[in-house]
Amino acid sequence: MKKAVVLLSGGLDSTTCLAIARDQGFSCYGISFDYGQRHRSELRAAQKIGEELGLVEHKTIPIDLRAFGGSALTDMSIDVPVDTDEINAGTSRVASGKVSENDQETLIPVTYVPARNTIFLSLSLGYAEVLKAQDIFIGVNAVDYSGYPDCRPEFIQAFEKMANLAIKTAVEGQEICIHTPLISLSKADIIKQGIALGVDYSLTVSCYKADSLGHACGHCESCLLRQQGFKQAGIEDLTHYQ
Amino acid sequence: MKKAVVLLSGGLDSTTCLAIARDQGFSCYGISFDYGQRHRSELRAAQKIGEELGLVEHKTIPIDLRAFGGSALTDMSIDVPVDTDEINAGTSRVASGKVSENDQETLIPVTYVPARNTIFLSLSLGYAEVLKAQDIFIGVNAVDYSGYPDCRPEFIQAFEKMANLAIKTAVEGQEICIHTPLISLSKADIIKQGIALGVDYSLTVSCYKADSLGHACGHCESCLLRQQGFKQAGIEDLTHYQ
Questions:
Q1: Which of A79-83, B6-10, B159-163 shows the lowest mean pLDDT across its residues?
Q2: pTM (two decimals)
Q3: 3-state helix, strand and coil shares in percent for chain B, rounded to the nearest 5
Q4: Record: contact A166-B112, CB cut-off 8 A
Q5: Distance (Å) from the alpha carbon of A160 to chain B's nearest alpha carbon
Q6: Per the CB < 8 Å rule, is B108 touching A171?
Q7: CA A162/CA B159 separation, integer angstroms
């Protein structure tokens, strides 16, 4: 079996991504990041999901991005927006598919974490090289997303190209492939695919303001996108709410 | 004054790079990495050098790459080679400029750390974004180097391209520039340039096996390249040896 490194946050997308990698026959090695996020309960969810979905190994890497701050997720002095007009406008524009290039720039919310996916993919690359794995799975999504630039296909393609110039094993011929099976799916389609693969979404934590039990607020952008996804998929939302 | 993030390991190259950034008129913000390296005394050197060269701020980021291992610098069960035929052949081939593409592949030594510069540049990118700095300086060198793939110009170019797709400020028009002022210089030329800018190299630590006082072994690859550089530059080597 070929080895794959799978980025696992404990949320809905990365859990589906892991289920897909496993279904494709990969032997999966999970990597999670304890980055000082306010919703740390997602890490406990990731642990449980990793066990349920049979990870061969699961590394949780401490990398405290509070050292820089600059995001509502890592700087406790910046509030996570809830039920604002801005979120509602953003999520409905996303849902309607009417996000233009210009909108995208102005839509990037305060929950954006500077260089997060670049940092996480870089660490995953180091892990992959040591494992001699050529495949990395990341559950980024360019449709029902929050306007984060590091979730777009052009970013992923540029990262893959850079990765293949960066590491010894790639230079020696074992090229790295970054898999993004969710990138062009809607949240509803992601949920449908996960359900078909037997994913138990009640284990996953998406909420930016989840409490220590992993119970969701139901009002932040991440909760709203998730609720909308279940609704559009016609699947019962078993998320634990506060 | 424009802000720049400067990667500072405490070694000869990064110190010269900082002196160059300062000389170019940048207001410099240093970033160092406590990554579980065996030669931790380089971090104390970096601290001292940062103070001497007037950093506005200096962050030391803990990111324990021993979690993956796979390098003589992060896995204490892998020895750092000293005075071996391989090192001598490698350094003399480098010195003669006769490193072919094929040699390069086979020359990558056990001191290579998987994805190190990718990880360090990614974290520097996050720091730069929060500071709203568009300039990052890294002292990589493609001439008198150790065959590390992440020191080559093609890697740096690919990283810069990826970075400009990754972060919010770049998407909004403030593009990132990765400066590599040493990339095509020999070690001797780097030293000459640093001396002209007033760098005190006795503060710097290059040795992979430096003791807790920062004193060098004089026999590892890094020591040999450094000694060769001072010799070729005709400048007295004031390195503290064990």
A1: A79-83
A2: 0.92
A3: 45, 10, 45
A4: no
A5: 9
A6: yes
A7: 6
